[in-house]
Amino acid sequence: MGFLKDLPIVSEYVLPALDIALLAFLLFKMYELLEETRAIQLLRGAVILALIYALAWFLRLSTLLWILELIAPGIFIGVAIVFQPELRSIFIRIGQRELFSGKTGQKPFRVEAVLNAALVLSASKRGALVVFVRKVGLKNIVDTGTRINAELSSSLILTIFDHDGPLHDGAIVIQGGRISAAGCFLPLSDQPDIRGSFGTRHRAALGIAEETDAVVLAVSEETGALSLAYDGNMFYDLEEPELRRRLHEMLGVGLPEAVESGVV
Predict the structure, then answer these.
(1) pLDDT tens, residue by residue, 168-204
(2) What residue ranges in the chain does DSSP mark as E strands?
(3) How many CA atoms lie within 13 A of 21 on its CB side?
(4) Best CA proximity match to 244, nearest among 119, 153, 127, 122
(5) Predicted local confidence at residue 139, as pLDDT
(6) Are 139 and 160 in contact (CB under 8 A)?
(7) What are the structural domain ranges in the chain?
(8) pTM of the model
(9) Which one of 3, 88, 155, 204 is most buried, counting C-beta atoms within 10 A?
(10) For the segment 123-158, what is each residue's pLDDT rounded down to a tens digit?
(11) Nearest residue to 150 (alpha-carbon basis) of 113, 105, 104
């Protein structure tokens, strides 16, 4: 293949075009990865600082350049500390080869089965945690629970989260339309500004949403509130239509025809 480089048209047009195309693809994938976490704020801040530095260099603002060069190491260290959860999430996804994978690949989620069970649990104020795996694998989380590998159904979810059940305190993990495991332990969020009213269940939902791209449905045992956690954020006490819309949207599953037409 080396002889191709000697061809004038290849060295002058094809290779530069290939170089630009590969660079654009890598930049797009990195931006897509950042956009799935709160680290997109980091990217925007870096762009603003770069523009300020370029303006200072162009206008020969020596004092501003000196200050920027002086505080640059401190900014780098501060960013690494403040955005540690987001950076950890990015490296986890890269390590699991999610950078070049497509957005689809999972079997369709049976969202309505989960929603029906969640509404029953909410009405009876029985707490629950349901984790939907998306691109980032959760084998380490599945290993903390009891493997089930069962077909997803509302009745099974209700049975798992029964008050007298041995698995009701943990989370169930759903992947590929099946319940992979139940009674799983999730990492707790360490956000300092998290609502004081959030208990362990909501902190766990937010914790896994900070570290991975999973979508987590939480049912409050105290109030029966239905909440979703994803992309490092908690959306608390959602009404049924909004909950259904967000869940279908985040999992890439279209709304049922009856819902879209307003029948239900």
Answers:
(1) 888 999 988 889 999 999 988 877 666 666 788 889 9
(2) 128-132, 146-151, 171-175, 178-184, 215-219, 226-230, 233-235
(3) 6
(4) 119
(5) 84
(6) no
(7) 2-95, 111-260
(8) 0.61
(9) 204
(10) 999 999 999 998 777 888 998 999 999 999 999 999
(11) 113
User: In angstroms, rounded to a whole number, what is the distance separating the alpha carbons of residues 49 and 44?
Assistant: 9
- Say how far apart CA 19 and CA 25 lie, in whole Å: 10
- d(CA 23, CA 176) in angstroms, rounded, equals 33
Q: What is the Cα–Cα distance from 122 to 77, expressed in whole angstroms?
A: 44
CA distance 30 to 24: 10
Local structure of 148: helix, strand or coil: strand
Q: SS3 for 223?
A: coil
Q: What is the pLDDT of residues 202-222, one digit of tens each?
A: 899 999 988 888 999 999 988
What's the rounded Cα separation, in Å, for the pair 24 and 5? Answer: 22
Give the pairing of strands 233-235 and 226-230.
Answer: antiparallel
Looking at residue 248, its amino acid is: H
